[in-house]
Amino acid sequence: MKRTVGALIGVVALAIVLGACGSKDAKDAKDAQAPAATAPAKVAATPVPAPSGKLVLKLNGMLSNHNQGGALAFDQRTLDTLPTRSATLYEPFLKKDVQFTGIPMSELLGRAGISEQATKVQLHALDDYKVDFQVADLMAPGVLLATRADGAPIPIAKGGPVRLVFPPDSTVGKNKDFWIWSIDSITVS
Fold first, then answer.
1. 120: helix, coil or strand?
2. Residue 42 reports pLDDT greater than 80
């Protein structure tokens, strides 16, 4: 135990020393070499009919498209009319590959008409769990608001009816805390 703690202290001390040796110029050079993210095609705000069935998802905040007061609300039927993509992704909680089908977040946020000044998006789940994202993180290619897993609707007991999934190359998606499920609302600010 003492050996492990000593080694850990040594590694932390080395990281601090090396971090202090870095210069702003070295950081800028590293950032300049990082590949630029591919920007998704801009999606225009599109009218969405008011929900006629049970409300599944509500977007509010800095958006220009509304169908229920100052919010954009969806029932499952309306969500199912939006363009979808499918991807087989490693599900970190099930520890296996799952084929998810869902709406690209760039498509959903674009249709909602999010403001160009918006910087943050908060997703809220039925159990009151909340996750904050930068707009750019959700607009990245491959980030889906999944409505189906392995071809079937996702029941609430298994994280449905909608959940967020990330492509394998997503830096944000590597943090399991961001894999939020049973999403009921999205707030753009």
1. strand
2. no
Beta strands in the chain (DSSP E): 55-61, 72-75, 85-91, 96-104, 120-125, 130-134, 144-149, 152-153, 163-165, 183-188
Q: Which CATH architecture has domain 55-188?
A: Alpha-Beta Complex (3.90)
In angstroms, the CA 145 to CA 112 distance is 14
The answer to whether the beta carbons of residues 126 and 184 sit under 8 Å apart is yes
Q: What average pLDDT does this structure show over 163-172?
A: 96
- Number of DSSP helices (H) and strands (E) in the chain, helices first: 5, 10
Contact 45/112 with Cβ under 8 angstroms?
yes
SS3 assignment, position 123: strand
Q: What are the structure tokens assigned to 141, written together?
A: 């290619």
| CA distances, 101 to each of 153, 165, 169 (Å) | 9, 10, 18
Task: Please choose, from the candidates 139, 111, 97, the residue with its C-alpha nearest in 3D space to the C-alpha of residue 47.
Answer: 111
Residue 43: predicted pLDDT: 66
